[in-house]
Amino acid sequence: MEEALKIHALLAQIVETKQRALSALLWMVEAEFWHRVGVNYLFVPWISWLLLLQSAPFLAPKTVSYLVLWWVFAVPIVALDVKIYGQWFTKGKRFLPTFANPTSQLSVIGNLVGAQAAANMGWKESAVFLFSLGMVHYLVLFVTLYQRLHGGDRLPAMLRPVFFLFFAAPSMASLAWESINGAFDTASKMLFFLSLFLFTSLDKTVQLVKICRPNLFKRSMRRFNVAWWAYSFPLTVLALASRDYAEEVKGGIANALMLLLSGLSVLVSLGLAVFTVFKTKMLLPDNDPISSLLNQLPRTA
């Protein structure tokens, strides 16, 4: 009997500990949901799963499993869209210029990845819906971030690699429209050229845009952290778009551009992988700006 009481007490203590951990986790998710930077990272898991869904060798695009998983991964993206874009319309004219930041483009990328996955399984109407939703809000974001000269200063220094998302969105749009249309047509080429221009403008149009000057990344490059992985995805998507462009035009310059961007993407990804292996303890630094801001918010539990 005494042993049973001890086991019961131990189980009660374990349950209580799990409840506290779950309560803390739910509070952090809620706090991040209302944070202007953190809320955009809620799109990342769904984007990753949609990309994995498209690259899975054991799931054909027109199977029931693919369809069910697409719904599971796409619905949260649309739900987050309603939350974020609804605030833009209802919170007043100063809300978007104040809260928009480069990570806001993750919502656009989420819609475009969902559109590409829908187009692969033949759902053209759903693909066009997600594509149009993403592109309309990309135009709003692009103009807002392009004109707001103080935007980079309000973003934490360690998160400034996310400025590479400026050319990730049009690159992803180029690939998504190719999946919808069935060919790398003029619209896809225009989006690819835009992404290529924005990529080169990181160094060349410094004084005009004032969002991608080289010293903008100095503080973020002093110490390795998980935010460095923001360099890999935009470069990879741009390289994929350049591959499709080279296959369409079949020219020497296009092939050279494809090789250059593909090589750069591979080198950056391998470099980040090596840094991650040898700098594991630095992935999540103690001075994480998002965590420090979340800790200042009141707890609801």
Automatic annotation (TrEMBL):
Q: Which is one GO molecular function term here?
A: voltage-gated monoatomic anion channel activity
Topology relative to the lipid bilayer, per the entry, is: Multi-pass membrane protein
User: What is the protein's given name?
Assistant: Uncharacterized protein
On whether Signal is a keyword of this UniProt record, the answer is no
The regions listed as transmembrane in this protein's record are 33-52, 64-86, 127-146, 158-177, 183-202, 223-241, 253-278
Tell me, how does this one assemble? Homotrimer.
Write out the entry's keywords from A to Z: Cell membrane, Ion transport, Membrane, Transmembrane, Transmembrane helix, Transport
Query: Which coarse location class applies to the principal site listed for this UniProt protein?
Result: membrane
Q: Which Pfam families match?
A: SLAC1
Q: Record's GO cellular component, any one?
A: plasma membrane
Q: What are the leading ranks of the lineage?
A: Eukaryota, Viridiplantae, Streptophyta, Embryophyta, Tracheophyta
- Report the function annotation for this chain: Slow, weak voltage-dependent S-type anion efflux channel involved in maintenance of anion homeostasis.
Native organism is: Dovyalis caffra
Give the family per the record: Belongs to the SLAC1 S-type anion channel family.
Q: In which compartments does the protein localize? A: Cell membrane
An individual GO BP term: intracellular monoatomic ion homeostasis
